[in-house]
Protein: COMM domain-containing protein 2 isoform X1
Organism: Hipposideros armiger
Amino acid sequence: MLLDLSEEHREHLAFLPQVDSAVVAEFGRIAVEFLRRGSNPKIYDGAARKLNVSSDTVQHGVEGLTYLLTESSKLMISELDFQDSVFVLGFSEELNKLLLQLYLDNRKEIRTILSELAPDLPSYHSLEWRLDVQNFQNGKYLKIKGPRR
């Protein structure tokens, strides 16, 4: 299964080939941190100053990488499918390998974080409601209350 990235996500990821692989690895760390604790504008500002780009560019790059990693982890795509999904972005082989390694190293942790963020679905904690339904279906409720007239 290949990831279907929107044009906006492709634009956000287009910044990655312009920076060193160490920066991409750091963006990967920031992306996982973003999932854990939320956005931190100070990190984006500091990275933007070091890279001599706007803070928005850094933020979009991290958000694009976050989306790539979370969607891949959520869908549990295979190594080959991840490589094929990234290959269509036109990155260098070195960057593709780095992104694959980021995915493989972090997918379990990302899935754990995503499961913690997922809302709990409502569920019954006792069987009392079942007894009420069974009593109603068996007519016991009608016998006690009497038929409606």
